[in-house]
Sequence to fold (243 residues):
Amino acid sequence: MRLRDTASTLAPVLRKGIGDAFLPQRCIVCGRFGAALHEACLDALPVADPPRCPRCWLPTAGQPQEARRRDGACSRCAADPLPFEGLRTPYRFVGKARRAVIEAKFRGVSALLDPLGRASASAVPRWWQLDAVTPVPLHGARRRKRGFDQARLLAATVADELGVPLRDGLLRRVRATGAQTSLGMDRRRRNMAGAFEVRTAPPPSVLLVDDVATTGATLGAAARALLDAGAERVYALAVARED
Fold:
């Protein structure tokens, strides 16, 4: 079976199961029964509108033009660029989008991950030439405690939507890093250093998928591991960006 076929087969299987235990479901946006998140309600989530830095996806409004790079990257990325080529998210990590991620991640409502994954796939620029999609993996202990890996479910949907092979298991989290919500950017980077290893040779261009981008430290550490293992370009995708 081809890898693309594997993604197509795996995606609908992974979407089911965990969230089904919560039926009948009520939409987190409109409150109507029938789905955890109705397709028509996706547009009501807080969109990550431009102008934004194409590299880190933080807003650039108010930054002086002379502080930005010629490619539109912000002053932060001009001074200290993250290792991935670019980051995209369809939503901001506030309001209903934040609630959707938290419900899916910590309360097991995995039915939310299918529409959120499709919305995330729609944010991928057409000019990103991708050879594979892979999730940012949870550490094994955390995955066993939670019972599922939300990034893996998202990546399966994204790969299916984009028609790009899913390379599940390309990365392995070799060190438990603990909660990072109270840490700043520098401490997060130090905390994530060496947290991932690459299990097989990566293809030239890889799309990393996670649920939330906060400082970019986790995505950056995963991207660095892939680049050190031979990938030529790494791109990043998440459901929501914390501005």
Observations:
- The beta strands are 87-88, 91-92, 132-135, 171-173, 196-198, 205-213, 233-241.
